[in-house]
Write a structure and sequence with these properties.
mainly alpha
């Protein structure tokens, strides 16, 4: 989360990615937590862990 948001759960990128792990809203909806509040650090952490477990780590890019 440091690279994506500087640990800020309210972060919003110019491209529209939001939260701690900078989820695109469309990507967020593909997780089991897609109906939860996207700005919740808790749900973002759960969704990120789920994505890692699914082999979807490549969907993040730190620049």
């Amino acid at each position: 989360p440091w690279c994506e948001s500087r640990w800020n759960p309210w972060a919003v990128s110019r491209g529209g990615h939001v939260g701690l792990y900078q989820f695109a809203p469309a990507t967020w909806r593909t997780t089991p937590y897609g109906r939860r509040w996207i700005f919740s650090a808790r749900w973002q952490a759960f969704a990120a862990a789920w994505m890692l477990a699914q082999g979807r780590a490549g969907e993040w890019a730190c620049r």
